[in-house]
Amino acid sequence: MAFERLSESIRTLYAELLEQTIHAEAEAAALGVPSAGSFVKKEVKGRTYFYLQVSEGEHRRQHYLGPDSPALREWMDRVREARETTAQDEAGRAQLCKMLKSGGAFIQPASTVQVLELLAEAAVFRLGGVLVGTHAFSTYANALPHGTAGRVDRLGNSTSVRISLGHERTKAGLDEVLICGHGDR
After folding, report:
1. Would you say residue 3 has pLDDT above 60?
2. In terms of Cα–Cα distance, which of 89, 77, 67, 88 is closest to 33?
3. Average pLDDT value for residue range 77-87
4. Sign of the CA dihedral with 29 first, then 10, 174, and 162 last
5. CA of 136: how far to CAs of 84, 114, 161, in Å?
6. Which is more confidently placed, 1 or 14?
7. If residue 26 lies in a helix (H) or strand (E), which one and from where to where?
8. What is the DSSP string of 153-177?
9. d(CA 18, CA 22)
10. What pLDDT, on the 0 to 100 scale, is given for residue 109?
11. I need a surface site. Which of 30, 79, 129, 145 has the fewest CB within 10 A?
């Protein structure tokens, strides 16, 4: 798989998408807003209780939230409001993805995105999980500040990766280029 150098405008769009995504993840974590599910009210022995119902594949699970109270209803209202804002933000990020794709950025197949979303929703990455292998390496094409010209070759059970920075005359060290985005100063 060969990667072409991305234009500066596409790299800028990618940086914007990355910044928005990081901000959205941090905000969701700080607010403690569940990303999926609906609120279900149940009556048990004359008392009202609320649950968060989440679909997991073909199964539905209900997570107990607590008895009906003004505090719980306020929290559920905040979650609904946050989800509305999140939906608008997600629509904006989806538009950025469309622009990146039309500009030649590397886009993961839908099946891969679904698996990565499931891992993210399960907090695998927040808990220190790391993506390795071909899918991790394929993101380098969009993430490196100067684009890349490289390829991933699969040989039997092993994978060898060759990535070269787009600038041959980089004065900064590789770590500085990857961390700070400076390479031609």
Report:
1. no
2. 77
3. 86
4. positive
5. 31, 15, 11
6. 14
7. helix 8-31
8. EEETTEEEEE--BS-SS--S-HHHH
9. 6
10. 83
11. 30
Q: Would you state the structure tokens that stand for residue 90, as one six-digit string? A: 């997600």
More confident residue, 79 or 70: 70
Q: How far is the C-alpha of 185 from the C-alpha of 2, rounded, in Å?
A: 27
What is the rounded distance in angstroms from the CA atom of residue 5 to the CA atom of residue 141?
Answer: 8
d(CA 38, CA 24): 20
CA atoms within 13 A of residue 167's CA, in its CB half-sphere? 15
Q: What is the crossing angle of helices 8-31 and 70-102, to 10°?
A: 170
- Of 115, 117, 97, 119, nearest to 107 by C-alpha is 97
What is the maximal distance between C-alpha atoms in the chain? 75
Q: Which two tokens stand for residue 21?
A: 């995504």
pLDDT of res. 163: 41
In whole angstroms, give the CA distance from residue 20 to residue 15: 9
Amino acid at 181: G
